[in-house]
UniProtKB/TrEMBL annotation:
Superkingdom to which the source organism belongs: Bacteria
Residues of the signal peptide: 1-19
Region Disordered, residue ranges: 76-100
Name under which the protein is recorded: SoxXA-binding protein SoxK
Keyword tags: Signal
Length: 100
């Protein structure tokens, strides 16, 4: 009975380790930062970049430089999403007029 319990526990731990997958690499961080910069440039081209998006990209670059690749990817992905939303906001409000 103990042998079965040990085998079951070993199998469960092995599956849990596989489920988490590999951690982020420097290349993953660099790719995410590059994508975020690209979207930020698109937002800037329509004069709709949000205030803190550039700061977020700088924080992602710092995290990547310090070897915190997962944090860098998370920050870069959030910055990319903000830039996409800024572009969407630009399109939605292009015909907006002041309320008098």
């Amino acid at each position: 009975m103990k042998k079965i319990a040990i085998m079951a526990m070993t199998a469960a731990l092995t599956l849990a380790a596989c489920a988490t997958g590999p951690s982020m690499s420097e290349q993953d961080a660099n790719n995410a930062i590059s994508a975020a910069k690209s979207e930020l440039n698109k937002a800037k081209n329509v004069n709709y970049a949000w205030r803190d998006t550039g700061k977020m990209i700088k924080a992602a670059e710092k995290a990547a430089k310090e070897g915190e690749y997962e944090k860098a990817v998370d920050l870069a992905n959030e910055a990319e999403k903000q830039s996409e939303l800024a572009q969407k906001q630009s399109r939605e409000q292009k015909d907006a007029e002041p309320i008098i």
